[in-house]
Amino acid sequence: MDLSEVEKNEENCESEDQDEIIFRSLDMEMIKKNLKAAHVKVHIDNLIPPKDGHSIRAISDKHVQDLVKSFQKSFQPYTVLIGLASTKADISKMSIPNHESVEILGGNHTVAALKQLAGENSEVYKYVYMDIYTNLTEAQALSLSYKHNELHENSQELSFSEKVIFFHTSFLKNKEKHAGKPQKHISTRWRSEIGAILNKSKVELKNSYKVHFSLAAYDDDVWNPITDVFDAFENYKIKGQKKSEKCTQYCFANFTKVKDNSEKITLLKKLSTGKITPEEFRSSCLSGGKINEKTTVSQATKRKSQQNSGSEPVEVADEVPVYNPRTETNEGNKDNLKEEMKDLRKQLRDSKRDLENLKQENQHLTKQLQDSEKDKQLKDTQLETKEKQIEQLKKTMVEYVGIMKRMKALDNKSKVGLSLLIRSISDVIAESGLTIATKIDDLQKSLKEEKDRCQLAEEAAARARATEKAPVAEHSIKRKNDTSQVIIAEEKEVVLVEYTKGKIYFAIKDKDFLTYCQRPVGVIRDGHFTHAPQKLSFTVNEKDKQTFDKKYIICSMKGSLGGKCIKADQLSISIENQILAIQKYID
Question: Domain boundary residue among 428, 455, 477?
Fold first, then answer.
Protein backbone atom coordinates (compact mmCIF):
# COMPACT_ATOMS: atom_id res chain seq x y z
CA MET A 1 0.00 0.00 0.00
CA ASP A 2 1.57 3.32 -1.11
CA LEU A 3 2.07 5.97 1.57
CA SER A 4 0.36 8.71 -0.45
CA GLU A 5 -2.76 6.55 -0.60
CA VAL A 6 -2.63 6.06 3.18
CA GLU A 7 -2.46 9.81 3.78
CA LYS A 8 -5.24 10.42 1.28
CA ASN A 9 -7.39 7.83 3.05
CA GLU A 10 -6.76 9.63 6.34
CA GLU A 11 -8.14 12.90 4.95
CA ASN A 12 -11.06 11.29 3.13
CA CYS A 13 -12.29 8.82 5.76
CA GLU A 14 -15.81 7.45 5.70
CA SER A 15 -18.80 8.68 7.67
CA GLU A 16 -18.62 8.59 11.46
CA ASP A 17 -21.45 6.06 11.80
CA GLN A 18 -19.17 3.06 11.38
CA ASP A 19 -16.57 4.64 13.67
CA GLU A 20 -19.24 5.08 16.33
CA ILE A 21 -20.16 1.38 16.11
CA ILE A 22 -16.52 0.34 16.55
CA PHE A 23 -15.92 2.74 19.45
CA ARG A 24 -19.17 1.67 21.15
CA SER A 25 -18.23 -2.03 20.91
CA LEU A 26 -14.95 -1.26 22.73
CA ASP A 27 -16.49 0.98 25.36
CA MET A 28 -15.59 -0.27 28.87
CA GLU A 29 -19.25 -0.40 29.88
CA MET A 30 -19.91 -2.78 26.97
CA ILE A 31 -16.84 -4.87 27.80
CA LYS A 32 -17.79 -5.07 31.50
CA LYS A 33 -21.01 -6.85 30.53
CA ASN A 34 -18.76 -9.84 29.74
CA LEU A 35 -17.08 -9.74 33.18
CA LYS A 36 -17.82 -13.14 34.72
CA ALA A 37 -16.17 -12.55 38.11
CA ALA A 38 -13.80 -10.04 39.72
CA HIS A 39 -10.83 -10.64 42.01
CA VAL A 40 -10.72 -14.41 41.46
CA LYS A 41 -7.88 -16.42 43.01
CA VAL A 42 -6.20 -18.41 40.20
CA HIS A 43 -3.36 -20.94 40.36
CA ILE A 44 -0.57 -20.11 37.88
CA ASP A 45 -0.63 -23.69 36.50
CA ASN A 46 -4.08 -22.86 35.06
CA LEU A 47 -2.78 -19.83 33.11
CA ILE A 48 -2.03 -20.07 29.38
CA PRO A 49 -0.41 -17.48 27.04
CA PRO A 50 -2.68 -15.26 24.91
CA LYS A 51 -3.66 -16.71 21.58
CA ASP A 52 -2.71 -15.07 18.29
CA GLY A 53 -4.38 -11.68 18.00
CA HIS A 54 -4.93 -11.17 21.74
CA SER A 55 -1.50 -9.69 22.57
CA ILE A 56 -0.20 -6.14 22.06
CA ARG A 57 3.49 -7.17 22.12
CA ALA A 58 5.85 -10.09 22.62
CA ILE A 59 7.31 -10.93 26.04
CA SER A 60 10.59 -9.17 26.88
CA ASP A 61 13.06 -11.45 28.67
CA LYS A 62 14.82 -8.43 30.17
CA HIS A 63 11.59 -7.10 31.69
CA VAL A 64 10.77 -10.57 33.07
CA GLN A 65 14.15 -10.75 34.83
CA ASP A 66 13.64 -7.24 36.24
CA LEU A 67 10.30 -8.40 37.68
CA VAL A 68 11.90 -11.51 39.17
CA LYS A 69 14.36 -9.34 41.09
CA SER A 70 11.56 -6.98 42.16
CA PHE A 71 9.28 -9.81 43.37
CA GLN A 72 12.08 -11.37 45.38
CA LYS A 73 12.25 -8.13 47.36
CA SER A 74 8.51 -7.52 47.65
CA PHE A 75 5.48 -9.13 46.00
CA GLN A 76 1.87 -7.92 46.42
CA PRO A 77 -0.47 -10.75 45.36
CA TYR A 78 -3.60 -8.56 45.45
CA THR A 79 -2.58 -6.82 42.19
CA VAL A 80 -5.32 -7.84 39.72
CA LEU A 81 -4.49 -9.30 36.29
CA ILE A 82 -6.85 -9.81 33.34
CA GLY A 83 -7.97 -13.26 32.14
CA LEU A 84 -10.26 -14.78 29.50
CA ALA A 85 -12.10 -18.06 30.16
CA SER A 86 -14.85 -20.11 28.55
CA THR A 87 -18.46 -19.51 29.54
CA LYS A 88 -18.60 -23.01 31.10
CA ALA A 89 -15.53 -22.47 33.28
CA ASP A 90 -16.03 -23.11 37.01
CA ILE A 91 -14.75 -20.09 38.95
CA SER A 92 -14.57 -22.07 42.21
CA LYS A 93 -12.02 -24.51 40.70
CA MET A 94 -9.59 -21.93 39.28
CA SER A 95 -7.50 -22.00 42.46
CA ILE A 96 -6.95 -25.78 41.98
CA PRO A 97 -3.93 -26.61 39.75
CA ASN A 98 -4.67 -27.90 36.22
CA HIS A 99 -8.48 -27.65 36.51
CA GLU A 100 -9.62 -24.60 34.51
CA SER A 101 -7.66 -22.90 31.68
CA VAL A 102 -7.47 -19.10 31.81
CA GLU A 103 -5.95 -17.11 28.92
CA ILE A 104 -3.79 -14.18 30.06
CA LEU A 105 -4.83 -10.86 28.51
CA GLY A 106 -3.05 -8.58 30.97
CA GLY A 107 -0.05 -9.57 33.10
CA ASN A 108 1.99 -11.92 30.86
CA HIS A 109 5.32 -10.59 32.14
CA THR A 110 4.12 -10.91 35.75
CA VAL A 111 3.04 -14.55 35.26
CA ALA A 112 6.31 -15.42 33.47
CA ALA A 113 8.27 -14.03 36.44
CA LEU A 114 6.10 -15.87 38.98
CA LYS A 115 6.54 -19.18 37.17
CA GLN A 116 10.30 -18.79 37.53
CA LEU A 117 9.88 -18.13 41.27
CA ALA A 118 7.17 -20.75 41.91
CA GLY A 119 9.63 -23.31 43.25
CA GLU A 120 10.87 -20.98 46.00
CA ASN A 121 7.61 -20.41 47.90
CA SER A 122 4.47 -22.25 46.81
CA GLU A 123 2.15 -20.09 48.91
CA VAL A 124 3.42 -16.71 47.73
CA TYR A 125 4.22 -17.14 44.07
CA LYS A 126 1.73 -19.77 42.86
CA TYR A 127 -1.44 -17.67 43.02
CA VAL A 128 -2.62 -14.45 41.39
CA TYR A 129 -5.90 -12.53 41.49
CA MET A 130 -7.66 -11.92 38.18
CA ASP A 131 -10.74 -10.31 36.66
CA ILE A 132 -12.23 -13.10 34.50
CA TYR A 133 -14.00 -12.20 31.20
CA THR A 134 -15.87 -14.36 28.67
CA ASN A 135 -17.11 -13.96 25.07
CA LEU A 136 -14.72 -11.15 24.09
CA THR A 137 -14.01 -10.14 20.52
CA GLU A 138 -10.40 -9.87 19.39
CA ALA A 139 -10.58 -6.06 19.50
CA GLN A 140 -12.08 -6.11 23.01
CA ALA A 141 -9.32 -8.44 24.22
CA LEU A 142 -6.67 -6.11 22.77
CA SER A 143 -8.36 -3.08 24.34
CA LEU A 144 -8.30 -4.71 27.80
CA SER A 145 -4.68 -5.74 27.30
CA TYR A 146 -3.66 -2.19 26.33
CA LYS A 147 -5.52 -0.54 29.23
CA HIS A 148 -4.06 -3.02 31.71
CA ASN A 149 -0.55 -2.27 30.40
CA GLU A 150 -1.13 1.46 30.93
CA LEU A 151 -2.31 1.11 34.54
CA HIS A 152 -0.62 -1.99 35.95
CA GLU A 153 2.03 -1.38 38.57
CA ASN A 154 4.59 -3.75 37.01
CA SER A 155 3.93 -2.94 33.36
CA GLN A 156 6.56 -1.60 30.95
CA GLU A 157 5.55 1.28 28.72
CA LEU A 158 5.05 0.34 25.08
CA SER A 159 7.97 1.57 23.02
CA PHE A 160 7.65 3.33 19.66
CA SER A 161 8.75 0.20 17.78
CA GLU A 162 6.29 -2.04 19.70
CA LYS A 163 3.40 0.29 18.85
CA VAL A 164 4.35 0.38 15.16
CA ILE A 165 4.57 -3.44 15.05
CA PHE A 166 1.15 -3.68 16.73
CA PHE A 167 -0.32 -1.20 14.19
CA HIS A 168 1.19 -3.21 11.31
CA THR A 169 -0.27 -6.49 12.62
CA SER A 170 -3.69 -4.84 12.87
CA PHE A 171 -3.30 -3.43 9.35
CA LEU A 172 -2.58 -6.87 7.86
CA LYS A 173 -5.61 -8.37 9.61
CA ASN A 174 -7.89 -5.63 8.32
CA LYS A 175 -6.54 -6.13 4.79
CA GLU A 176 -7.36 -9.82 5.06
CA LYS A 177 -10.71 -9.22 6.72
CA HIS A 178 -11.86 -6.66 4.15
CA ALA A 179 -10.18 -8.23 1.10
CA GLY A 180 -11.69 -6.92 -2.13
CA LYS A 181 -12.80 -3.66 -0.53
CA PRO A 182 -11.37 -0.29 -1.62
CA GLN A 183 -8.19 0.88 0.09
CA LYS A 184 -10.17 3.77 1.55
CA HIS A 185 -12.54 1.35 3.29
CA ILE A 186 -9.65 -0.74 4.71
CA SER A 187 -7.77 2.31 5.97
CA THR A 188 -10.88 3.72 7.67
CA ARG A 189 -11.67 0.49 9.47
CA TRP A 190 -8.05 0.04 10.52
CA ARG A 191 -7.66 3.53 11.97
CA SER A 192 -11.04 3.38 13.71
CA GLU A 193 -10.16 0.07 15.35
CA ILE A 194 -6.76 1.36 16.54
CA GLY A 195 -8.41 4.53 17.86
CA ALA A 196 -11.00 2.50 19.79
CA ILE A 197 -8.39 0.16 21.29
CA LEU A 198 -6.18 3.06 22.39
CA ASN A 199 -9.24 5.15 23.32
CA LYS A 200 -8.02 8.01 21.13
CA SER A 201 -10.03 10.39 18.95
CA LYS A 202 -9.31 10.99 15.25
CA VAL A 203 -7.62 14.27 16.08
CA GLU A 204 -5.38 12.62 18.67
CA LEU A 205 -4.48 9.85 16.23
CA LYS A 206 -3.55 12.34 13.54
CA ASN A 207 -1.48 14.52 15.87
CA SER A 208 0.32 11.82 17.86
CA TYR A 209 0.41 8.69 15.69
CA LYS A 210 0.88 9.94 12.14
CA VAL A 211 4.40 8.48 11.88
CA HIS A 212 3.21 5.20 13.41
CA PHE A 213 0.46 4.78 10.82
CA SER A 214 2.72 5.74 7.90
CA LEU A 215 5.37 3.13 8.84
CA ALA A 216 2.84 0.40 9.68
CA ALA A 217 1.12 0.69 6.30
CA TYR A 218 4.16 -0.34 4.21
CA ASP A 219 4.27 -3.67 2.40
CA ASP A 220 6.95 -6.26 3.10
CA ASP A 221 9.63 -4.83 0.77
CA VAL A 222 9.88 -1.68 2.94
CA TRP A 223 8.49 -3.11 6.19
CA ASN A 224 11.25 -5.70 6.64
CA PRO A 225 14.09 -3.09 6.53
CA ILE A 226 12.07 -1.00 9.03
CA THR A 227 12.02 -3.90 11.50
CA ASP A 228 15.78 -4.34 10.90
CA VAL A 229 16.24 -0.76 12.10
CA PHE A 230 14.12 -1.52 15.21
CA ASP A 231 16.29 -4.57 15.97
CA ALA A 232 19.51 -2.59 15.44
CA PHE A 233 18.37 0.04 17.93
CA GLU A 234 17.42 -2.69 20.41
CA ASN A 235 20.86 -4.32 20.08
CA TYR A 236 22.79 -0.99 20.07
CA LYS A 237 24.18 -1.45 16.52
CA ILE A 238 23.26 2.03 15.27
CA LYS A 239 26.17 4.29 14.43
CA GLY A 240 26.70 6.92 17.12
CA GLN A 241 23.92 5.44 19.33
CA LYS A 242 24.13 6.41 22.99
CA LYS A 243 23.66 3.81 25.72
CA SER A 244 20.19 4.97 26.72
CA GLU A 245 19.07 6.00 23.22
CA LYS A 246 15.99 4.23 21.85
CA CYS A 247 14.25 4.36 18.52
CA THR A 248 11.68 7.18 18.46
CA GLN A 249 9.33 8.62 15.89
CA TYR A 250 11.67 11.63 15.63
CA CYS A 251 14.09 9.40 13.71
CA PHE A 252 11.42 8.75 11.01
CA ALA A 253 9.87 12.23 11.04
CA ASN A 254 10.98 13.05 7.45
CA PHE A 255 10.75 9.51 6.04
CA THR A 256 7.62 10.34 4.02
CA LYS A 257 9.60 12.90 1.99
CA VAL A 258 11.44 10.05 0.29
CA LYS A 259 9.15 9.14 -2.60
CA ASP A 260 10.96 6.23 -4.19
CA ASN A 261 10.72 2.89 -2.36
CA SER A 262 14.17 1.76 -3.51
CA GLU A 263 15.74 4.87 -1.98
CA LYS A 264 13.81 4.23 1.23
CA ILE A 265 15.14 0.69 1.39
CA THR A 266 18.71 1.89 0.73
CA LEU A 267 18.55 4.47 3.53
CA LEU A 268 17.04 1.97 5.99
CA LYS A 269 19.76 -0.60 5.26
CA LYS A 270 22.53 1.97 5.74
CA LEU A 271 21.00 2.99 9.08
CA SER A 272 20.52 -0.60 10.34
CA THR A 273 24.06 -1.68 9.31
CA GLY A 274 25.72 1.27 11.07
CA LYS A 275 26.91 3.14 7.96
CA ILE A 276 25.06 6.36 8.79
CA THR A 277 23.91 7.99 12.01
CA PRO A 278 20.26 8.78 12.85
CA GLU A 279 21.01 12.48 12.22
CA GLU A 280 22.38 11.70 8.76
CA PHE A 281 19.35 9.48 8.12
CA ARG A 282 16.93 12.32 8.98
CA SER A 283 18.90 14.81 6.91
CA SER A 284 18.91 12.45 3.93
CA CYS A 285 15.17 11.89 4.25
CA LEU A 286 14.66 15.66 4.31
CA SER A 287 16.55 16.02 1.02
CA GLY A 288 14.35 13.36 -0.62
CA GLY A 289 16.65 10.38 -0.20
CA LYS A 290 20.07 11.74 -1.23
CA ILE A 291 22.83 11.61 1.36
CA ASN A 292 24.03 15.20 1.87
CA GLU A 293 27.71 15.73 1.13
CA LYS A 294 29.21 18.34 3.36
CA THR A 295 29.98 21.41 1.31
CA THR A 296 33.52 22.74 1.69
CA VAL A 297 35.11 26.12 1.59
CA SER A 298 38.60 26.08 0.15
CA GLN A 299 41.51 27.30 2.21
CA ALA A 300 42.48 29.62 -0.61
CA THR A 301 39.18 31.41 -0.42
CA LYS A 302 39.55 31.70 3.31
CA ARG A 303 43.10 33.07 3.01
CA LYS A 304 42.06 35.56 0.34
CA SER A 305 39.28 36.78 2.58
CA GLN A 306 41.69 37.14 5.47
CA GLN A 307 44.25 39.05 3.33
CA ASN A 308 41.62 41.50 2.22
CA SER A 309 40.79 42.09 5.87
CA GLY A 310 44.49 42.62 6.73
CA SER A 311 44.73 39.67 9.10
CA GLU A 312 47.25 36.84 9.16
CA PRO A 313 46.35 33.58 7.42
CA VAL A 314 44.78 31.05 9.74
CA GLU A 315 44.71 27.32 9.19
CA VAL A 316 41.13 26.12 8.65
CA ALA A 317 39.57 22.74 8.28
CA ASP A 318 39.35 21.31 4.83
CA GLU A 319 35.61 20.82 5.21
CA VAL A 320 33.08 22.96 7.04
CA PRO A 321 29.48 21.83 7.42
CA VAL A 322 26.89 24.18 6.03
CA TYR A 323 24.39 25.45 8.59
CA ASN A 324 20.87 24.27 7.71
CA PRO A 325 18.21 26.16 9.73
CA ARG A 326 15.48 23.67 8.75
CA THR A 327 17.16 20.81 10.59
CA GLU A 328 19.31 22.39 13.30
CA THR A 329 17.31 25.32 14.66
CA ASN A 330 16.57 25.07 18.38
CA GLU A 331 17.69 21.42 18.60
CA GLY A 332 18.73 21.96 22.22
CA ASN A 333 15.36 23.42 23.17
CA LYS A 334 13.55 20.55 21.49
CA ASP A 335 15.59 18.01 23.41
CA ASN A 336 14.85 19.78 26.69
CA LEU A 337 11.14 19.90 25.94
CA LYS A 338 11.19 16.23 25.03
CA GLU A 339 12.82 15.32 28.32
CA GLU A 340 10.30 17.41 30.26
CA MET A 341 7.39 15.82 28.40
CA LYS A 342 8.85 12.39 29.05
CA ASP A 343 9.12 13.13 32.79
CA LEU A 344 5.56 14.46 32.92
CA ARG A 345 4.22 11.38 31.16
CA LYS A 346 6.13 9.15 33.56
CA GLN A 347 4.73 11.05 36.56
CA LEU A 348 1.20 10.77 35.16
CA ARG A 349 1.65 7.06 34.50
CA ASP A 350 3.01 6.49 38.00
CA SER A 351 0.08 8.40 39.49
CA LYS A 352 -2.38 6.27 37.54
CA ARG A 353 -0.68 3.10 38.72
CA ASP A 354 -0.71 4.26 42.33
CA LEU A 355 -4.40 5.14 42.06
CA GLU A 356 -5.23 1.77 40.52
CA ASN A 357 -3.29 -0.06 43.24
CA LEU A 358 -5.09 1.91 45.93
CA LYS A 359 -8.43 1.10 44.33
CA GLN A 360 -7.57 -2.60 44.18
CA GLU A 361 -6.33 -2.61 47.77
CA ASN A 362 -9.47 -0.78 48.89
CA GLN A 363 -11.61 -3.32 47.02
CA HIS A 364 -9.72 -6.15 48.69
CA LEU A 365 -10.11 -4.64 52.17
CA THR A 366 -13.78 -3.84 51.56
CA LYS A 367 -14.43 -7.45 50.60
CA GLN A 368 -12.65 -8.67 53.74
CA LEU A 369 -14.72 -6.26 55.84
CA GLN A 370 -17.96 -7.45 54.23
CA ASP A 371 -17.00 -11.08 54.85
CA SER A 372 -16.21 -10.25 58.50
CA GLU A 373 -19.57 -8.53 58.93
CA LYS A 374 -21.37 -11.53 57.42
CA ASP A 375 -19.52 -13.88 59.79
CA LYS A 376 -20.38 -11.65 62.75
CA GLN A 377 -24.07 -11.56 61.77
CA LEU A 378 -24.11 -15.35 61.39
CA LYS A 379 -22.45 -15.84 64.79
CA ASP A 380 -24.85 -13.35 66.41
CA THR A 381 -27.81 -15.24 64.94
CA GLN A 382 -26.42 -18.58 66.14
CA LEU A 383 -25.78 -17.13 69.60
CA GLU A 384 -29.29 -15.71 69.79
CA THR A 385 -30.74 -19.06 68.75
CA LYS A 386 -28.71 -20.90 71.40
CA GLU A 387 -29.81 -18.40 74.07
CA LYS A 388 -33.43 -19.02 73.14
CA GLN A 389 -32.86 -22.76 73.31
CA ILE A 390 -31.26 -22.41 76.75
CA GLU A 391 -34.23 -20.34 77.99
CA GLN A 392 -36.63 -22.95 76.67
CA LEU A 393 -34.64 -25.73 78.36
CA LYS A 394 -34.74 -23.82 81.66
CA LYS A 395 -38.53 -23.52 81.45
CA THR A 396 -38.81 -27.19 80.57
CA MET A 397 -36.65 -28.11 83.58
CA VAL A 398 -38.83 -26.02 85.91
CA GLU A 399 -41.94 -27.74 84.56
CA TYR A 400 -40.29 -31.16 84.95
CA VAL A 401 -39.34 -30.45 88.59
CA GLY A 402 -42.95 -29.38 89.30
CA ILE A 403 -44.29 -32.57 87.81
CA MET A 404 -41.88 -34.68 89.85
CA LYS A 405 -42.91 -32.90 93.06
CA ARG A 406 -46.59 -33.58 92.29
CA MET A 407 -45.88 -37.23 91.53
CA LYS A 408 -43.92 -37.61 94.76
CA ALA A 409 -46.78 -36.05 96.78
CA LEU A 410 -49.26 -38.38 95.12
CA ASP A 411 -47.05 -41.38 95.91
CA ASN A 412 -46.87 -40.35 99.61
CA LYS A 413 -50.65 -40.03 99.72
CA SER A 414 -50.98 -43.56 98.29
CA LYS A 415 -48.69 -44.99 101.00
CA VAL A 416 -50.62 -43.23 103.80
CA GLY A 417 -53.89 -44.52 102.38
CA LEU A 418 -52.52 -48.06 102.28
CA SER A 419 -51.47 -47.88 105.94
CA LEU A 420 -54.92 -46.64 107.03
CA LEU A 421 -56.58 -49.36 105.00
CA ILE A 422 -54.53 -52.08 106.72
CA ARG A 423 -55.52 -50.74 110.15
CA SER A 424 -59.20 -50.62 109.26
CA ILE A 425 -59.08 -54.17 107.94
CA SER A 426 -57.47 -55.37 111.15
CA ASP A 427 -60.29 -53.75 113.15
CA VAL A 428 -62.94 -55.34 110.94
CA ILE A 429 -61.30 -58.75 111.30
CA ALA A 430 -61.26 -58.46 115.06
CA GLU A 431 -64.93 -57.50 115.22
CA SER A 432 -66.43 -59.83 112.61
CA GLY A 433 -64.79 -63.02 113.82
CA LEU A 434 -63.89 -64.07 110.29
CA THR A 435 -61.62 -67.00 109.78
CA ILE A 436 -57.90 -66.41 109.22
CA ALA A 437 -58.14 -67.62 105.59
CA THR A 438 -60.91 -65.15 104.81
CA LYS A 439 -58.99 -62.30 106.42
CA ILE A 440 -55.86 -63.08 104.39
CA ASP A 441 -57.84 -63.32 101.13
CA ASP A 442 -59.55 -59.97 101.69
CA LEU A 443 -56.28 -58.35 102.64
CA GLN A 444 -54.59 -59.59 99.44
CA LYS A 445 -57.42 -58.17 97.32
CA SER A 446 -57.13 -54.78 99.02
CA LEU A 447 -53.39 -54.77 98.58
CA LYS A 448 -53.73 -55.63 94.88
CA GLU A 449 -56.19 -52.77 94.29
CA GLU A 450 -53.93 -50.28 96.08
CA LYS A 451 -50.94 -51.55 94.10
CA ASP A 452 -52.82 -50.99 90.83
CA ARG A 453 -53.57 -47.39 91.83
CA CYS A 454 -49.90 -46.77 92.61
CA GLN A 455 -48.87 -48.26 89.29
CA LEU A 456 -51.27 -45.91 87.43
CA ALA A 457 -49.76 -42.95 89.26
CA GLU A 458 -46.23 -44.04 88.35
CA GLU A 459 -47.18 -44.49 84.67
CA ALA A 460 -48.63 -40.94 84.61
CA ALA A 461 -45.37 -39.59 86.05
CA ALA A 462 -43.32 -41.50 83.47
CA ARG A 463 -45.40 -40.05 80.61
CA ALA A 464 -44.90 -36.54 81.98
CA ARG A 465 -41.13 -37.02 82.15
CA ALA A 466 -40.98 -38.42 78.60
CA THR A 467 -42.95 -35.64 76.89
CA GLU A 468 -41.70 -32.74 79.07
CA LYS A 469 -44.99 -30.93 78.61
CA ALA A 470 -46.31 -28.05 80.66
CA PRO A 471 -47.60 -28.78 84.20
CA VAL A 472 -50.89 -30.60 84.28
CA ALA A 473 -53.49 -29.58 86.84
CA GLU A 474 -54.18 -32.20 89.55
CA HIS A 475 -57.82 -32.43 88.64
CA SER A 476 -56.85 -33.53 85.10
CA ILE A 477 -55.17 -36.69 86.52
CA LYS A 478 -58.50 -38.02 87.70
CA ARG A 479 -59.91 -40.59 85.38
CA LYS A 480 -63.22 -40.00 83.72
CA ASN A 481 -65.63 -42.86 83.46
CA ASP A 482 -67.63 -41.18 80.67
CA THR A 483 -66.13 -42.31 77.29
CA SER A 484 -68.94 -41.04 75.15
CA GLN A 485 -67.15 -37.71 74.38
CA VAL A 486 -63.94 -39.12 72.81
CA ILE A 487 -62.51 -36.65 70.20
CA ILE A 488 -60.94 -38.18 67.08
CA ALA A 489 -57.84 -36.15 65.93
CA GLU A 490 -57.68 -35.27 62.22
CA GLU A 491 -54.35 -34.52 60.45
CA LYS A 492 -54.34 -31.19 58.60
CA GLU A 493 -51.86 -28.87 56.87
CA VAL A 494 -51.15 -26.06 59.33
CA VAL A 495 -49.35 -22.83 58.37
CA LEU A 496 -47.90 -19.87 60.21
CA VAL A 497 -49.01 -16.73 58.39
CA GLU A 498 -48.67 -12.96 58.85
CA TYR A 499 -52.05 -11.21 58.78
CA THR A 500 -52.28 -7.48 59.58
CA LYS A 501 -50.19 -5.15 61.75
CA GLY A 502 -47.48 -7.79 62.07
CA LYS A 503 -49.74 -10.33 63.82
CA ILE A 504 -48.81 -14.00 63.32
CA TYR A 505 -51.61 -16.63 63.27
CA PHE A 506 -51.95 -20.39 63.00
CA ALA A 507 -54.28 -21.32 60.14
CA ILE A 508 -55.63 -24.48 58.48
CA LYS A 509 -54.74 -24.57 54.75
CA ASP A 510 -57.35 -26.05 52.45
CA LYS A 511 -56.43 -25.57 48.77
CA ASP A 512 -56.75 -21.80 48.10
CA PHE A 513 -58.25 -20.88 51.49
CA LEU A 514 -56.97 -20.38 55.03
CA THR A 515 -59.09 -20.81 58.17
CA TYR A 516 -57.56 -18.65 60.91
CA CYS A 517 -57.40 -19.24 64.66
CA GLN A 518 -59.20 -16.85 66.99
CA ARG A 519 -56.09 -15.51 68.68
CA PRO A 520 -52.61 -14.71 67.24
CA VAL A 521 -49.46 -16.62 68.13
CA GLY A 522 -47.59 -13.34 68.57
CA VAL A 523 -46.72 -10.07 66.86
CA ILE A 524 -43.74 -8.61 64.91
CA ARG A 525 -42.62 -5.25 66.28
CA ASP A 526 -39.48 -3.30 65.33
CA GLY A 527 -38.02 -6.34 63.59
CA HIS A 528 -38.55 -8.68 66.58
CA PHE A 529 -41.12 -11.40 67.27
CA THR A 530 -42.97 -11.24 70.59
CA HIS A 531 -45.06 -14.22 71.75
CA ALA A 532 -46.50 -15.93 74.84
CA PRO A 533 -44.67 -19.28 75.15
CA GLN A 534 -47.06 -20.58 77.81
CA LYS A 535 -49.96 -20.58 75.31
CA LEU A 536 -49.80 -23.83 73.32
CA SER A 537 -53.46 -24.37 72.31
CA PHE A 538 -55.20 -22.22 69.67
CA THR A 539 -58.93 -22.48 68.78
CA VAL A 540 -59.84 -22.42 65.07
CA ASN A 541 -62.50 -19.89 64.00
CA GLU A 542 -64.32 -21.75 61.23
CA LYS A 543 -66.12 -18.55 60.17
CA ASP A 544 -62.80 -16.75 59.47
CA LYS A 545 -62.05 -18.39 56.11
CA GLN A 546 -60.22 -16.29 53.50
CA THR A 547 -58.04 -16.46 50.39
CA PHE A 548 -54.32 -15.66 50.90
CA ASP A 549 -51.09 -14.41 49.31
CA LYS A 550 -48.25 -16.96 49.31
CA LYS A 551 -45.61 -14.36 50.19
CA TYR A 552 -47.08 -14.00 53.72
CA ILE A 553 -46.78 -17.75 54.47
CA ILE A 554 -43.96 -18.22 56.97
CA CYS A 555 -43.82 -22.03 57.12
CA SER A 556 -46.04 -25.07 56.52
CA MET A 557 -46.33 -28.22 58.68
CA LYS A 558 -48.52 -31.20 59.50
CA GLY A 559 -50.52 -31.52 62.67
CA SER A 560 -53.51 -33.22 64.31
CA LEU A 561 -56.61 -31.10 64.79
CA GLY A 562 -58.42 -32.29 67.94
CA GLY A 563 -61.89 -30.82 67.83
CA LYS A 564 -61.29 -27.17 66.93
CA CYS A 565 -57.87 -26.77 68.55
CA ILE A 566 -54.31 -26.64 67.15
CA LYS A 567 -51.63 -27.80 69.58
CA ALA A 568 -48.43 -25.82 68.89
CA ASP A 569 -46.23 -28.49 70.48
CA GLN A 570 -47.81 -31.37 68.53
CA LEU A 571 -46.98 -30.18 65.01
CA SER A 572 -44.40 -31.69 62.66
CA ILE A 573 -42.11 -28.66 63.26
CA SER A 574 -41.02 -28.00 66.84
CA ILE A 575 -41.75 -24.70 68.59
CA GLU A 576 -38.04 -23.73 68.47
CA ASN A 577 -37.90 -24.25 64.69
CA GLN A 578 -41.19 -22.36 64.28
CA ILE A 579 -39.60 -19.36 66.01
CA LEU A 580 -36.49 -19.68 63.82
CA ALA A 581 -38.69 -19.71 60.71
CA ILE A 582 -40.43 -16.53 61.90
CA GLN A 583 -37.06 -14.84 62.54
CA LYS A 584 -35.82 -15.85 59.07
CA TYR A 585 -39.05 -14.45 57.58
CA ILE A 586 -38.44 -11.13 59.41
CA ASP A 587 -34.83 -10.95 58.12
Answer: 477
